[in-house]
Every structure is written in C-alpha cells, then in structure tokens.
Amino acid sequence: MSPLNLDLLLFAQTSITTAEGTAEAAEAAEVSSAMGWGVFLIVVAALVIPFVVGSLLATALNLKSLSTRISLVLLAITLAVSPFIITKAEGKPFKDAIDLGIDLAGGTNMVFMVDRKAAEAEGKVIDDELMNKMVEKVKQRVNPTGTEEVTVRRVGSDRIEVIVPGADQEKVEQVKRDIITLGDLEFALLANSVNHQDIIALGDNVGEGERVFRDGKLIAMWRRPALDADGVQKVTGGDRVRSRILTAEDGTPLTDSAGQPLREFLVVVDPDPAKRITGRYLVSVREEITEKGLAVGFTFNPQGGYLFGQVTARNRPQEGEGFYSHLAVLLDGQIHSAPTINAVITTTGVIEGRFTEEEVENLLGVLNAGALEVPLVSEPVTEFTISALLGEEVQKKGFLAIGIALAAVFIFTLVYYLKSGFVADVCLAINILLVLGAMSLIDATFTLPGLAGLVLTIGMAVDANVLIFERMREEQARGSSIRMSIKNGFEKAFSTIFDANITTLLTAVVLYYIGTDQIKGFAVTLFIGILTSMFSALYIGRLIFEIAEQKRWLTDLKMMSLINAEGINFLGKKQIAAAASVLVILVGLTAVGMRGSDNLDIDFRGGSMVTFGFEGEAPETEEVRELLAPQFEDGITLEQLSVTEGGESRKLFRLRTVVDETAVVSQKIKEAFADSAFRLVQQSVRYEDPVEIVVEEGSEDELMAGGYETTVVLSESMTPAALAEEAFDSLSSIKELAGVDVEETVVARSLNPDEPKSNEIRLMFGPSVPVEDVNSALSNMKEDLEKDPHFEEVNSFAQSVTGDAKWAAITAMVISLLMIVAYLWIRFQRVTFGVAACAALIHDVLVVLGLVAIGAYLSGTPLRSILMLEDFKINLPIIAAFLTIVGYSLNDTIVVFDRIREVRGRNPALTESMVNASLNQTLSRTILTSLTTLIVVLILYVMGGEGIHGFAYCLILGILVGTYSSIYVASPVLVWLMNRQQKKVAST
Fold it and tell me: Do residues 462 and 413 touch, judged by C-beta distance below 8 A?
C-alpha cells in the first residue's frame, strides 16, 4: 500500500518574499539550528558521559569487569536528574520540574458550553448520553496519558468544567484549543473543470462558504484553505481546480500575510454520507517526517481503506490524459493540503501541510481522541484562577509528615541492618530520584496523596532489601563466605521479588487500560515505582555489595536479629482466625449498608455548585469553611478562586455540596454568614420601563421585532446568558412556557460586547409576551436577584465518577485478579496458588471497607479524639489506598507462597507442617516489612493533616489486615485447596 503523496502547490508563495522577511527567516533558521545542535549535544552528553565516567571509575577501582554495570547505573541517574538540571538551566527552581496537582498548586478553572445552535443545525439533541460522550472526548484530549490530574466533569445540562492544575497562561490557551477544536477529518475532492462542470455551475450560484445541494443531497461546499503559523494559505491553486478570490464588502480582494489573494475552493463530496471518508475510519495517527517537513501519518480500518481505494481508483490519472485530480484534506472544515492522486491508495497515508511541531502534537491529540459530538462555544462561560485546594498549613503538615516518614525508614533500615542497611539506604535514595525523574519526564502530576503514596512505595521497597538481607543471614548461618552469602542472597531472593512485583505490575497495567483517569494516574505511579524499586534493589544494590566486598570495604555482614521464630503453629489457629474474619466482615458490611449513600464523598454523588464573593476584604478559605461546614451535614468541598475584572483581581469561593436544590443551598449560605463579620455580595438591580423593539430587517434580533425591551443595570456584572435565564425563569412563574425555547422568548445583549460579563445588559422579550407579563417578569427577576447572595455561577454537577467509570474500575479489579490467578498458575504450576492469593485480596478489601464505615460511626463517640477518627467517606484518594492495599497484600502473600514452594520441593502433598515451617522462616521478613511500612503510614496519619488523613487511615488498616491475611487466610485456603485436589486425584 503506497503512502499518500501530498504535493503542496505553492506557486506564487515561494517567489514572493521581502528582504526583511528573508532576513527574519535566516535569523530564525540560525536560532533553530543552534537550538537543534544544543539539544543534540545535550542528548549525546547524557548518553556518552556516564559511560566515560563509568569506565574511568572502574579503572580507578581496578574493577574493569564492572565497567558496563557502573556505566548503566550512572546513565539511569543522569536521565533521572536531567529534567531538574534543564529546569535549573532555564532559571527556574528545581521544584518546577515536577508538576503539582490542584490540591498543591491550584490552577485554572474553565466552564465550556455546548453550542446549541450548531447542535440543532446538525439535528442533535443535547441529552445525558451526548454530554457523557462529550466529557469522555474532552478527557482524552486534555489528558490522553492519564498521568496528569486534569479534572473534566459535566456541570448543568449543557456545560463541561475543566480544571488544569498549576497551569501557566500558555498551557491554558493550549488546553482551550485542544478542547474547542472539533476534530473533524475528511478526505474529499477539489472540483475541477474536467470532471465536475455541472457541480461547478451549481456552486457558482451560491455564496461564500455555502453548501451545494442537488435533489436535496449535499454534493459540494466552498471551503477556505487553512493558514500556517505565519498566516500564509497552505493551498493556493491546482490543475484546473475551481476556486474564487474572497473580497471585502467594498469589493477589495482579501489577502493573506504573504500578500496573496485569499481563496476558497469548491470541494466535492459523495451524496451518500456513508461513503464519505472521515475520521471515523481512523485506526491510528502518528508523527512522520517527509521531504516537506513534519507531517501526520494515518491508518484507516479496512472499511475506510476500501472507500479510499474506490475514490483514488476513480480519480487516478488515465493513460495519455496528462491531468491529475486533487484530493482535499479537510480538518474542521479547512483545507490543509491538496495532494495529487497518482495511484490507488487504500489504508495508509500522510497528511502534509507545513505543520509546526506544536500543530502536529495538537493534531495527533485531537485525531486520537476523535471528533466532538457537537461543537463547544469557543470562549469559556467562566474562567477563574483557582487556589490550592489544600491550605498552606495543611500542605506544611503533609510535607513535614512525608519528610519525617522518609527519615524514619532510612534510620530504621540503617540501625537494624548496619552496613547492609547503609547500602539499602543508598538504593532507596537513588530509587526516589529515579521515580521523581521518570514522573517528570512523562509530565505526570503529583498530588499530596500521590506524594504520600510515593513515600509508601519507598516503605514497601524496603521489602526487597529485607528479603535479600534475610537470605544473606541464612547463608551466613550455614557458614558461607561473604562473597557467597551476597551471591546466594540475591539469587535466592530474586524469584520471590520478581513474582511479587510482576503480579503487581499486571495489576497496574490493567488499571491503566481500564480504570478511570484518576486510577490511571495511580497506575502509572505504581508501575514506575515497582520498576525502579526492582532496579535499585536487585541491580544497584548488588553492584554496591560486589564493589564493597572486592575492595574489602565490607568484611562482615552483621545485622540485628530481634525475631527468631521457630515452631509456632499458625495453622492450628485457623478456625479461630476464620471466625474472627467472618465476624469482622459481617459487622463491617452491615455498617456499610446502614450508612448507604453517606459512605460516598461528593465526587461520587453529584449535587450543586455555586460561586460567591464578599464585600470588602475577603476572609481566608479556612474561615469560610468553618462557617459553612455546620450548615451542610454531608460535607462540602470549597475552592478559592480569583478573577480579574477591569484590571482588578477579586477573590471568590466556589462551594460544592450534595444538596441539589439551589434555593436550599442559598438559604444555608445566608444563615452561615448571618452573624459573622463577613458580608456576602448582594445584587442590586435597576431597569427602565419596557419599550417596543424596533430592529432592522436582517438583524440577528429580527425575531424579537414587535416585542419589548429594557436596559438592566446591575451592581454585580453577569453574563447576558445568565440574565436571560433569570428573566425566562421569572416569566415561567407567571406564564406557561413548557417546551418553549429560551432564545425565542428572551434574548440578552451586553452593551459592552468585548467583555464576557457586563453591568449593563439589553434585555428583549419576544412578540409573544404581552407588556404586562414583561413588567411582572422584570419585577419578579429583580426580587429574586436581590433577596439572595449574588452567585457568580449556579450549576448542578454530575458525580465525578460516573456509573460507567465505576463499572470500569470494578472490571479492572476483576481482570487484575484473573491475571494474577493465571500468572501464579504458570509460576507455581497449580491454579490453587492464584485462587488462594485472590481469596486473601478479597478478604482484605472487604475488611478495610467495613472498618472505614465503622471508623466513621465511631467518630461520633469519645474515641474520635483518641484514635483521630473522622467521618470517613470513600473518595478518589481512598480508592487509591484500596488499590495500594491490594498490591501490598499480594506482595506479602507471594513471599510466603514462594517459601512454601521451596520447602515443599517435589513433594506432591502440602501439609500444615510445611506451611508452618514456611511461615516461621518468613516471619522476620513479614514483621520487618510491615513494621517499616507501618511506621511510614502512622506518621502520615498522625501528622499529615486532612489532605491525607483518610488515605493514611485505610493504609494502616490495610497493612495490618494484609499481614494477617497472608498468614491466616491465604495459607489455610491454599492447604485446603491443595488437599481437596489431592483427595480428588486419589479417589479417581
């Protein structure tokens, strides 16, 4: 299949260039060349220097055999620090290399509205199904990898809210472009005088940009070429193609920035919409480089390839004809290139069009996400700068807790394992650097719970070192030399570490491909953390040990030994343990059932969203929260916003609550501040007596002619659309308007059209509304606006995690469990190992879920202050905690199973004595790993503040329950399944 050769026709454009333009182009080329060489040299240095330094270091140590391994470690460290070095070289602080989420850095909040007129013109109904599709498409555009904490959710019936964390204005503008670009790709034909004379005759009779119909079917349309980054048309002509020059109202030809006349071309389409070649047939798109620069390669599915083949076959050059037809490659209705058709083309091709790197990236994102169902209005309805959701004090507490937790892990490891602990600490420090570097390289976003999860990952990474060191201890006890102890310790621990981490990696992969956006971000962090932990422990750790041993820096492997378990009959308590587990699960699930929807936080329930401000100096966020919280029993989320109007910045507050009645929300807000020193902004409304509307014929407000209008003066600016809705609601209270369109009854026009909001708005009522109803509606509207606090916006919002997303998360968990069963089946040669591990995972999730509900109930008792309990609700950080618990429990269980496999050897039977022996041998590792991780999460729970309190609570429970289940759930279930299977084999 030959690629599509897109021959851009640049007749006059290539010859018309001013001297100034040439100089500028040359200067730009020099700068571009210098930058290109600079980047090339940096890349070469990053790749070459580690190997040079590694070789020199190995020579200096007289360990040339380790040269390559040392170099690879230095390469990994170099790549990890490169984002921070580049950031510093740009004059920014190191921390700017890491993208922070909304909770830590704030960002920009925008609300976009569906273009209802465009939707109606396409015959599409704005309903729940369409809006859900729109939200998913926008998510794919602004967060295609799932690594950024960009929030996209539906608000109201026709609006989409997008929150971009920590974004500068340049990125915000880019996100806007990504969102509003329709993403329509279509391949058609440029009309030519050889094959389309009849269509050209019809097309010449329609106006600029209009469509051509025959027998009621669309057959052609006039379309303009796209402009490149310099404002020059990408297409200016072609062999016998039909085009015409665009003119101003006075008949003067319009020109592009190169001085060439602006044209529009007649584009021929198939009368049958099903046969038109559009983006719906795309399988993939990719960046490519051709003779003409950057391009976008594409691949169609078989149906698209078949249609493309038909079109190119019909229009390929005929022998002796000497004429070439031109394709029209349209993106969002503009022609980006007009290649000649030289041969039959099917499923693959390349779109050339003088693209910049940025344009290609944007185009790939939009085409991969797919076209929007209906267009969005280009300018946001509202756009605010949002402050960090977590206050400065909360952030300080969180970061302090994270720092102390890290220090505790390092100190504990160093004290308990002495010299070996020092090696482990070096590996952990490198591991942290590798994780941060990798997250920075892929532009992943860190939230406070995410950073807490990173510390937890480090705490769990100690597990690999503990496994290795405990194996070394066993080798030392057998009388092995230090060199053999190191060698055997790493080799014997490898399979256990590999199995435990691979199963968690499988979970991460499934969660990424099936889970929600927030779960995808967690999966990426988990995936990177596991890979770097394995690399740092198994590769870097072993390298350091070998260097230290060969240079005689390490002459002993002394370690503390506080746990020496022997002869404990764990399985003898299995019945008591089973009864305790069943009891806790039943009580917990009963508590969950009794709480009902109160188990869920606001992200899972939906409700109302209002934005308000204060007169004079605004209070701090915490002061507002303290006054509002008692009025809303089910909890709230509060965001601090800022908006610039008239050159001045104002502080606003956005409240989200599960209460879905705006009147109730308004009353609660009024009561919250009634006796406080803070005064809510109130609206003041004045309006003139209505007069009859007189408009010229052809005006956009022609439908209003014969109705009545007035000028409304407001103390607080509003959007015309918001005022029109208020007037329509007031009119509806006195007049039956069921099924009547707002825009056919009430229209509002700002007297200052350059501003999205205005204090003076022209309000028009259609001819169907008598003047007495107009006066009544205006009076009611004034009363309604002045009696309540002035809300900058009022909307309902859907739950952030929709029903489909919930099922996606559940599906991800189920598939993860199945993959774990399959992997353990292969590794342990029996499916029973996988089933037993999954039984423990399900046990852990059910127990922790129940204990979350029980903890919420106990928060209303004196135990609240003793245990630091809260009215815990399931939100996205707690979902991440549940996923972490699954990974931790699985890791613990596989360590035990791996030792059971070793103790069992080739014995076909599995006895309780074998399992007890395995549990005793791994008990020190189990307790040490659990203790290390528990130290981390306890510090986060006690000191971390509200940002990570619920997250840490779940993890404390998960660690305790996960350790318990690997001993008292997974192991007994494994024995029961194995013996049951053996009995079946014996009976046959």
Answer: yes
Helix (H, G, I), strand (E, B) or coil at 382: strand
Is the confidence at residue 896, as pLDDT, over 50? yes
**pLDDT exceeds 80 at position 962:** yes
Lowest mean pLDDT among 492-501, 586-595, 687-696, 840-849: 492-501
Alpha-carbon distances of 790 from 620, 723, 974, rounded to whole Å = 19, 12, 64
**Cβ(67)–Cβ(54) below 8 Å:** yes
Would residue 320 be called left, alpha or beta, if left means φ above 0 and alpha means ψ between -120 and 50 degrees? Answer: left
Say if residues 469 and 489 touch (Cβ distance below 8 Å). yes
> Pairing relation of β-strands 185-190 and 151-155?
unpaired
Closest CA to 76 of 55, 115, 47, 39: 47
Four-residue CA torsion sign, 535, 538, 544, 546:
negative
Length of the chain: 988
Tell me the C-alpha distance between 862 and 866, whole Å: 7
Identity (one letter) of the amino acid at 457?
A: T
Per-residue pLDDT reduced to its tens digit, 100-136? 777 777 788 888 888 877 787 777 888 888 888 888 8
Burial 889-924 (b: 16+ CB within 10 A, else e): bbbbbbbbbbbbbebbeeeeebebebbbbbbbbbbb
Q: Do 90 and 151 touch, CB atoms closer than 8 A?
A: no
Which has the closest alpha carbon to 536: 848, 960, 76? 76
- Here the tokens at position 529 are 């953390």
Contact between residue 784 and residue 768 where contact means Cβ atoms under 8 Å apart: no
How is residue 688 annotated by DSSP?
A: P
Tokens 């903890």 belong to which residue? 855
Q: How deeply is 616 buried, as exposed, middle or buried, from its count of CB atoms within 10 A (0-12, 13-18, 19+)?
A: exposed
DSSP sequence for 401-424: HHHHHHHHHHHHHHHHHHHHHHHH
Q: How would DSSP label each residue in 768-835?
A: TS-HHHHHHHHHHHHHHHHHSBPEEEEEEE--SS-HHHHHHHHHHHHHHHHHHHHHHHHHHS-HHHHH
Non-local CB neighbours of 260 within 8 Å, separated by 6+ positions: 12, 13, 16, 232, 233, 236
**Of all helices (H) and strands (E), which one includes residue 650?**
strand 648-657
> If you average pLDDT over every residue of the chain, what do you get?
81
Phi/psi of residue 108, nearest 5 degrees: -125, 135
Residue 677, SS3? coil
Which tokens belong to 809? 């998360």
Residue 939 — left, alpha, or beta (φ > 0 → left; ψ -120 to 50 → alpha)? alpha
Confidence of residue 986 (pLDDT cuts 50, 70, 90): low
Mean pLDDT computed over 659-686: 87
pTM of the shown model:
0.72
Residue 258's nearest CA partner among 524, 529, 11 is 11
Q: Quick one: tokens of 592?
A: 């969950």
- The DSSP bridge partners found for residue 441 are none
Distance CA 734, CA 731 (A): 6
d(CA 610, CA 632): 14
User: Six-digit token pair at 337?
Assistant: 């290139």
The mean-pLDDT minimum among 53-67, 170-184, 217-231, 696-710 falls in: 170-184
* Spatial separation of the C-alpha atoms in residues 150 and 173, rounded to whole Å: 15
CA dihedral of 478, 481, 485, 491, whole degrees rounded to 10: -110
Considering only residues 166 and 409, tell me which one the structure prediction assigns the higher pLDDT: 409
For the stretch 909-923, pLDDT in tens is 788 899 999 999 888
d(CA 476, CA 478): 5
Q: Name the CA radius of gyration of the chain, rounded.
A: 34
| Token pair recorded at residue 565 | 């378990």
Residue 35 pLDDT > 50, yes or no? no
DSSP 109-167: EEEEEB-HHHHHHTT----HHHHHHHHHHHHHHH-TTS-S--EEEEETTTEEEEEEET-
Q: How far apart are CA 956 and CA 881, in angstroms?
A: 10
Q: Is the pLDDT of residue 350 over 80?
A: no
